[in-house]
Structure formats: C-alpha cells, structure tokens
Amino acid sequence: MKLAYLSESEADEAALKILTEAVLKRSTQAIPLAGLRHRGWPAVQNALPAVLRALHYHTDAEGLVILVDSNCSPPHLPAHDPGGAAETKCRLCQLRRIADETLSKVHARSHAPPLRVAVGLAVPAIEAWLLCGVNPHVTEAAWFNALQSRDSKKPYSRQSLKEELYGTSRPWLALEKAKMAEAARRLAKDLSQLKTSFPNGFGTFAETLQGWVTRSS
Amino acid sequence: MIEWLEFKNIKALRDTRLPLSRFTLIVGPNGSGKSTVLQAIQALGHKRSWTRDEIRTAGVAEIEPPLIRGGSDSGEFTWRPDAAVYLLGNRHTRIQGPGEVVDAFHRSRLFSFNADEIAKPVRLLPEIELDEKGGGLAGVLDRIRDLHPERFEAINQELGRWIPEFDRILFETPVEGMRAIVLRTRQGGHKIKARDLSAGTLIALALLTLAYLPEPPTIVCLEEPDRGLHPRLLRDVRDALYRLAYPESTGEKRDPVQVIATTHNPFFLDLFREHPEEIVIAEKDGLEVKFSRLSERPDLNEILGDAPLSEVWFSGVLGGVPKGA
Predict the structure, then answer these.
(1) pLDDT per position as a tens digit, A191-209
(2) How many CB atoms lie within 10 A of CB B197?
(3) Exposed e or buried b per residue across B237-252, where buried means at least 16 C-beta atoms within 10 angstroms of its C-beta
(4) Could you give the CA distance from residue B135 to residue B121 in angstroms, rounded to a whole number?
(5) Phi, psi at residue B169, to the nearest 5°?
(6) Which helix (H) or strand (E) holds A67?
(7) What whole-number distance in Å separates Cα of residue B68 and Cα of residue B38?
(8) Where are any strands of DSSP class E within B161-243?
(9) Burial class (CB in 10 A: 0-12, 13-18, 19+), B90
C-alpha cells in the first residue's frame, strides 16, 4: 500500500509509520512526496488542502495518514463520528471535514484509486500514546476528565510526558526518534491496550485504517 | 551561571535589567539592545574593552557613568568601562566581583557567523579557536579530527543528517601551513571547496562544530543562529544549542555552557514554546528598553491558547515588536 504521512517531525513520522503498519498488518511503500511536515495546529489545517491536492494529482498515493496532538483542545468522542454531531473544536473532526471538502472538489484521477485519509489525534500528545503500557495513569479518559474538571490542574503535561519518555524535556531529535520508534515497536506487538487506553484518538484512527484493508480485499 | 545583568547608560540600554537562564533566547524589535547585550558580555570578559565614547547613550549627561551590574551563583559583580584594569589570578579584568565570574566572562565568546569568513583558509595554529564570524573553522575542525576523532565522527554524522547531500568533511592544504574545508558529496563523492558551498551549509557546519567543541566557552552569545538556514533545520539548531546548555541530556560529561541567543525568526521562536522561561522579550518604549521573561506573564497560557507562539508574538500582544510597524 502506498501511503503518505503528514506529521510534525521526522520522529513522529517514524513512530506513526510503525503504528500504521501494525494496524494494517502490512508494510507500506513510500511515495515521492515523502517527509510531509506540518508545524502543529493550526498550520496543519491551512496546509492540508494543498497537501491533498498535490497527493491526488501528482502521486499514486492511496492514502494520507495524519497525526496531530490535541493539546488542550477537546478530545474526539464517538458522538462526533459520521452521523453524530461533529464537535467544532475537535481537531480530528476539523481535519476530516477539510479533507472531505477538498477531495470532493478534485477531478477523478485515472492513475490511482481515490485518495483516502486517516487522522490520528494524540491526546494530549504522541508521547502519551507511546507511554501506554508503561504509565497506566496516562490515558485519554484521564486527560478528558481533567479537561472537564473545574480544577485546572492536569494529571500530567506535555513536558512531563517528554521527561518520562525521553528522560529530558529537551530531547534532541536523534534521541526522540530512537525512543519513539522503540516505544512504537513495543506497542505494535499488541495494539489492544493502545486501543483501550486511547479509544477515540487512536481507536478511531485504527478503525479507519482497518476499513482501508477491508475495502481493498 | 550569570542570573541577571543590569545595564545603565550602555548605548540603548539606559536603565534595564535582563534575566538570564542556562539558555536564553531574546526577541525584540531592531534597536532594542539585543546585540548590545551580547557585545557587553563580550566586553566584560576581555582586556580590549569599550571606551565611554563607544557606549555613550544618546542624551545622557557625561556625569552619569555607564555601568553593568550582575548576579551569578557565585555572587554579585560590577563593571565600568573606565575602571582600572587589575590582575585577578592570571586574568586582567575591570570586573569587581568573584573570581568565578571574572573567569566565566573571560571564557565567554560572541558569535555572529558569516559564511565568507567561515570559508576562508586558515593558518594552522596550536591554540586556534572559532572567531566571532566563524573564521578559523577549518583549523578548529582539523584539531578536533586529530585530537578528538570520536567528536569529529559525530560532527560528520550530524552534518550528513542536517544536509544529506554531504557525507564527509575533508581538508585541503592550499599552501603550506594552511587548511581549508572541503565537503564530499554523498552522491558521486565530489569534493566541494568551502568557497563554493552555500552560506547556509557553512553556517550549519560552524554551529555543529560549536556544539561539539571538546572545551566550549563558558558563555556563548549568538547573534541570530538561525540566519541563512532552512526552517526545517531550526529544530536541529535548537538541539545543537541545547547540547551546549544541557550537556547532561545528551550524555556529555562537562559543565553546562550558558547560551544567550537572539532571533527575529518566528519559526525558531516556536521551538521554545514549552520553555517560556527561556524566552526574554525586549520591549522598546520611547528611549527606554525593558526585558522580561515570557514565563513571568501570569496570563500567558490564557493568551496563547492553542495559537502558535510566533503568531501571538507577531500580533504584538506579547510585546517585543516594532512600534508603529
């Protein structure tokens, strides 16, 4: 399967590729527009239409896999899914909407099947996913409850997640890449806990990807 | 570590206090004294110092003398441009304060890299150092290769990652006793002379070398380290500067270097969003300049929300932008 990845950094991309291939249960092929990057929210929103059009017209990519961090925005919930009321501030829903709108306006292409899009929403950051199975307190529910609570104190922060995963809140890129890939490989052996602990940001993402396999076969 | 500096009647810095951390990034409009701060630190440590005329603040009477005060983990200190030079240990200094401070400033260096200077062949000298513009780089790298081959390999590895078209730093001897840098292309093994390399490549190489120096300066002041570099390389530039300031996070076993850098680059600023204590905003109000740590704003999180730091900074709500522009 030929896929493109849109993430914040080389390190994120390496981890995302490992997790994607684990969900798909197959390896993916790089496409010419490799190493697509966004600079966090809201830059990803602005760049996404251009990225989609470039992939659609100029590559034979079958899918675009996007990963964004939720930070303090509302996590994705099942009620947002198709048929439900999309939460306007949910980043996953916003990116899906942009993708749907953009792809509905492109001309059909003959050189490849229609481009598909899967969006992962790491709550609050990819380090939380990668600590799954290591720190049982880091879950989507814990973060969601903290956001709902009147007490503004969060159970953890992006910085504390970094410290836990990398041993420093200022990891250099090579360390970040190595630690992320190591954690992603550990999770790839058994994705069930990641799906349980992050049912909406990762679970929904995994379902989308699995849908691609079902449709292909 | 120098914890703060207070400037009186030093060019644009009429009466202001600058908070410092192990790593400090100063942002602010042109003419807000960012470069003066870096030059002042340089002047504090060296025998050839500023004269009153060189640092005169416009409109300030002759009787109000220029002064720099500061605080460090070893104690407070003062410096005046016309104070008598005296010998402390083996250091000539005008600083009145603890010996550790005198030593720290003596071993401080200011860098404002310039590609033409970096590319120049250099005479090989035993104590060669990187100069302010990056001159001497060929000699410094040549020494690292000979005396610290593992560091030289690390620089090669990193250079190949930063600028993948090159895979090796080589040297040429244009005339006896001189060295010049040559980079080898990954494809085809072509040797590209320093004078034919892009400005960004040369500046990246100088930054990398600085980050991997076996005995770096105690204080490194950097004018716009992002200059000439592609925005995607800025994360690597940040990592290189963090390598100096936080050696323990990279496994380096040496004392931390205090790094003070300036920038106008919004992409670079965004890389420090998670450490607002490292960002100092220089604010110009009429003839006055004020410095404040971004983290000292009690409403910072509310103001930033989910917006990129650079965009909020550019909007002007955090200060540090030209008035009227």
Answers:
(1) 999 999 999 999 999 999 9
(2) 21
(3) bbbbbbbbbbbebbeb
(4) 9
(5) -95, 125
(6) strand A63-69
(7) 13
(8) 166-172, 178-185, 191-193, 219-222
(9) exposed
What is the rounded CA–CA span in Å between residue B218 and residue B271?
24
Q: What is the pLDDT of residue B251?
A: 87
Helices (H), B120-175: 137-147, 149-162
Looking at residue B54, what is its pLDDT? 75
Report how far residue B324's alpha carbon sits from residue A133's, in angstroms, rounded to the nearest whole number.
Answer: 53
The number of C-beta contacts closer than 8 angstroms across A and B is 40
Quick one: pLDDT at residue A148?
85
| CB A37, CB A68: distance < 8 Å | no
Contact between chains at B242 and A73 (C-beta distance less than 8 A): no
User: pLDDT tens, B199-251?
Assistant: 999 999 999 999 999 999 999 999 999 999 999 999 999 999 999 999 998 88
Reply yes or no: is the peptide bond before residue A124 cis, omega within 30 of 0.
yes
B147, burial (CB in 10 Å: exposed 0-12, middle 13-18, buried 19+): exposed
The token duo for A118 is 């899967």
Q: What angle do CA B55, B59, B65 make, to 5 degrees?
A: 50
**Nearest chain B residue to A168, by CA:** B249
- ∠ CA A75-A81-A86 to the nearest 5 degrees? 70
From the list B232, B248, B274, the residue facing A158 with the nearest CB is B274
**Residue B252 near chain A (CB below 8 Å):** no
This prediction has a pTM of 0.91
Token pair 């496994």 is found at B251
Give the residue on A whose Cα is nearest the Cα of B302: A72
Do B169 and B180 form a contact (C-beta atoms < 8 A)? no
The complex's ipTM works out to 0.85
| Residues on chain B touching A173 (C-beta within 8 angstroms) | 235-236, 239
